[in-house]
């Protein structure tokens, strides 16, 4: 057995970009990390799909396991780093195997924690092992640490995050270059900024995983993917980006978590953010999180949300924490103490909204539309009508006063039944962060 | 003796705004804090100058010490919180007394840590006690934790901070309302945003204390107030704020720490920050820090830098960390491992500069001025001349290309000897953060 009093022996499962980054940091900063953690941290074993691939780092000193799950059984390994990805399969099997043996487990896998976080946290607590996932959310930004430790004396009431670099990159380029979503996506895929299968990113699933994790830590609940309505950015048209600017907003894909006396509300969707708000200024692939808590007030965290260096930096921070003996319940409070709070359904959300309609350009249309709004008691803050839409008709843009979402949804439904409305209306929530 | 396995007993020295805030959090969030730290955290004893003062919290259950230093000797106290202030006197005596007894010590006192941090860290290490000071820098923003833990796997190369809310508030109001420094200061004092004696804030000393602490954690060195050239904001004139805007900058008081192959450079001064840079957008009394590190890249932290809630939140985060057993060398690495790096003198700083002159409005003046610049090999990026200055003469505004600071200082010296130059030139460094 290893002398964990003076050394920490690490196994790494997955040697893609992040795995290689972790190995590089542990190699290049070995002396620094030993000073900071008080222990020598070294790699003992690694696993990846393709042993022969050139990775630009020296792996010769490390044991090789073809099967990642076997890393948990390597005798002198104290801490397993999982960088395979996926909520189930080998990642989950490895997590269970490591924690079962009382070995610490560090992961960058948001899907794993969002889906199995409660089970794994319980297992870690039972076995007295650490389970850490700083790298799972917002890459190099220590946002997990901020919520679980830095703001631990606070009751957090809400957080908003730009948590997916691919989406923010696409929205930024759509705005800057006036391109369509499809055009930018294609180019982003060519440049490696978006995956060949971009579904997880652009449909908001990645952001939902991260939002579930942040909400869990902020509110003391289990990650809850079952109650996290999720919309992506596929439907955002250049015309919405233009109108947003004209109205003083910028469109961002947000992860939102809010706690009120009525319960908890988590959701992922594109939103109109006022240009002066902190999140409106976050451009390109940058991530940012705004947290509102009762004593610290509003704090903002910003940095690179992905990539070899930033994500590896977060993994290594977790390793150093574990080496230092900084151990606590993985979800901030013990699993037994997690709250089951009522879920506030999306329909009960109170907010302000942006609606874009493409309608026939003829007399009486505006009267038809405003009648539907009145029917649902939706009060209009502003209306814009702009010249011909390229596909025919004209655009009518509205923003509402504070309204319950059910009323907006009902109104949108009425709109689609109007003859003068030429396509499915676009609705975006306005979030003042 | 107390059972520290299940409880942490706290003593608080100083019951001003922050002390009261800490007591409020520990009272109001007792259950939450017990869940998060795994231990009941309760106040045992307090000390303040005036026992009779009404503070809006119930102190009846706590032992009272007239002399703060006596708190360290209260038997069942495990952890002493110092909120007295001042680098020496009772704050230092209490720190020594608590750590000597192996009790943990948490402080919001930047002067104490900036001046005596190395000695106190050494004492804490010898006695196996915790010494924590999250609240000493940037209030509610967990920036100490970010540097010492979140970015622990990184080599930090530079950081820039807006660390004094009073100065940022004054600069913000000077810009928004077109007022002079003196006018805003007076109003800020009336409103309680500035102290009756504002020297520590407006002359940059408070920012220097905080910069020394951040540099220590970032670079693995002892806090070094002896090599921290410090300038405040007294000399900033409304005309500089106007010219800054015209040139695309905003003036901010910055704490700067930079590490290169040649050594370490720390300094505090007002600087021109490009309007698009993160720190230019930080307004009012908000604090922010931008950190550049080798793997995580640029990360930004922003929030309330002072006040009851934010500062108390940071103190309580430290208390929870200690309760959880998250203990490491107070300066991030053991005192014995701290580096003594060469100090890069201000004169060797390479940067770009803004210079404002008030000169006679007659032919030949520009030739005289540019001759002095040429003499010191200073290359000009832009020159502006603007109509009459209210006190007579005209303003000439220059920005330079990359130059060594010694050349700028020599040029300024030449300028003051020119007959056409009507007042001491104003120089501001340009910092692209």
Question: Can you describe what's shown?
Answer:
- The structure is a homodimer of 433-residue chains.
- Helix content of chain A is 35%, strand content 25%.
- Chain A has 433 residues and is α/β, with parallel strands linked by helices.
- Chain A folds into 3 domains: 144 residues, Rossmann fold, CATH 3.40.50.720; 162 residues, Dihydrodipicolinate Reductase, domain 2 (2-Layer Sandwich); 85 residues, Alpha-Beta Plaits (2-Layer Sandwich), CATH 3.30.70.
- In chain A, strands 7, 8, 9, 10, 11, 12, 13, 14, 15 and 16 form a 10-stranded mixed β-sheet that branches.
- In chain A, helix 4 links the parallel strand 5 and strand 6.
- In chain A, helix 12 packs antiparallel against helix 13.
- The relative contact order of chain A is 0.13.
- Chains A and B meet through helix 1, helix 2, helix 5, strand 11 and helix 11 of A and helix 2, helix 5, strand 11 and helix 11 of B.
């Amino acid at each position: 057995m290893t002398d964990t009093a003076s050394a920490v022996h690490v196994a790494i499962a997955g040697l893609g970009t992040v795995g290689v980054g972790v190995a590089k940091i542990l190699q290049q900063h070995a002396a620094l990390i030993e000073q900071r953690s008080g222990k020598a941290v070294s790699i003992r074993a690694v696993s990846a799909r393709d042993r022969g691939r050139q990775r630009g780092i020296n792996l010769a000193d490390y044991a090789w396991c073809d099967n990642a799950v076997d890393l948990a059984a390597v005798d002198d390994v104290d801490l397993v780093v999982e960088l395979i990805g996926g909520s189930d399969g080998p990642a989950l099997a490895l997590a269970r195997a490591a924690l079962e043996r009382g070995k610490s487990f560090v992961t960058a896998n948001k899907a794993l924690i969002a889906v199995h976080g409660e089970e794994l946290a319980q297992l870690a607590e039972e076995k007295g092992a650490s389970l850490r996932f700083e790298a799972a959310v917002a890459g190099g930004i220590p946002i997990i640490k901020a919520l679980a430790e830095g703001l631990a004396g606070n009751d957090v009431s809400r957080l908003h995050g730009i948590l997916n670099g691919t989406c923010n990159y696409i929205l930024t380029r759509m705005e800057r270059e006036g391109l369509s979503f499809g055009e930018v996506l294609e180019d982003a895929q060519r440049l490696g900024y978006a995956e060949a299968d971009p579904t997880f990113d652009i449909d908001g699933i990645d952001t939902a995983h991260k939002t579930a994790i942040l909400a869990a830590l902020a509110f003391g609940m289990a990650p809850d993917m079952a109650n996290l309505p999720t919309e992506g950015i596929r439907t955002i048209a250049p015309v919405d980006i233009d109108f947003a600017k004209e109205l003083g907003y910028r469109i961002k894909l947000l992860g939102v978590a809010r706690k009120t006396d009525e319960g908890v509300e988590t959701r992922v969707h594109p939103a109109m953010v006022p240009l002066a708000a902190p999140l409106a200024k976050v451009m390109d692939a940058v991530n940012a999180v705004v947290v509102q808590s009762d004593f610290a007030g509003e704090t903002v965290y910003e940095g690179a949300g992905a990539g070899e260096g930033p994500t590896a930096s977060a993994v290594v921070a977790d390793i150093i924490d574990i080496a230092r003996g900084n151990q606590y319940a993985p979800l901030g409070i013990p699993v037994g103490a997690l709250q089951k709070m009522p879920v506030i359904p999306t329909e009960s959300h109170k907010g302000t909204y942006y609606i874009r309609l493409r309608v026939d350009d003829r007399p009486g249309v505006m009267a038809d539309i405003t009648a539907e709004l009145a029917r649902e008691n939706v009060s209009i803050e502003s209306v814009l009508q702009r010249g011909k839409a390229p596909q025919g008709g004209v655009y009518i843009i509205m923003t509402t006063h504070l309204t319950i979402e059910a009323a907006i949804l009902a109104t949108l439904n009425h709109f689609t039944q109007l003859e003068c409305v030429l396509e499915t209306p676009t609705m975006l929530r306005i979030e003042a962060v």
